[in-house]
Amino acid sequence: MTPDAFMHLPSLRDRVTPPEKSALRATPEVLALWDELARELGRPNNWRLSDQEIEDSRRAILGDLNPAQDLWIYAYGSLMWDPGVRFAEVRRADLEGYQRRFTYRITLGRGSPDRPGLMLSLESGIGCCRGLAFRIAADLADAETAILWRREMIRGGYTPVMQSMKTPQGSITALVFSANHSHSEHVGELPLNETAAIIASASGVIGTNREYLEQLVEQLVTLGIEDTYIEQLVRQMRDTGNV
Length: 243
Hints:
With 243 residues, the chain is α+β, with helices and mostly antiparallel strands. It has 6 helices and 7 strands. The chain has helices at 28-40, 51-62, 138-152, 192-201, 209-223, 228-239, and strands at 71-75, 89-106, 117-136, 158-167, 170-179, 203-204, 207-208. The strands form 2 sheets. Strands 2-3-1-5-4 form a 5-stranded mixed sheet. A two-stranded antiparallel sheet has the order 6-7. The radius of gyration is 17 Å and the shape is globular.
């Protein structure tokens, strides 16, 4: 990151995990540790996509990009506070026609087979998803997106696409990890009370599902972003005595 990476959003300077401190910076060494942990938990060798499948997916989307051009990455969930990549600039970014929804079931990380959790996806629909966009410098884009792909596409749970979006500094085109409706763990939008109950009780080897939601809410508050769905979800949990 350059010293002026937060020039547009100085309030985030201490609220975004530096890449060198990120436990989610999926280098080959970190991925090997995840594989070892999966084996210890009794997961099969094919618990994730192979290295080649992950790389083929990346090349299918980014292979034709201009190597001299910087790359923008859109963040709407954990990437907003822990992108795990080296970036040169961060902006507020509005993606029209999409909404945050907890529609991806997980049994690793913040969930387990006994206590599965839910992770955010981007679902197409009416409205606008307000998040962040991180700019990766052109000379780092290849290496940094390889790291990002191992994290986001480890089980193929998302559909990476390039989408145009608005920022206060002008329109950009960014890489977006949207919902993969054909994935076996995509459950669609569940009733709010069911979603709240799952998030309140789920936990895994890296923490609870509730902690994830709380981190999301804190970052949205810091950015002054209102998200009716997230607000209703937290309210539902509080009303039922789960938080």
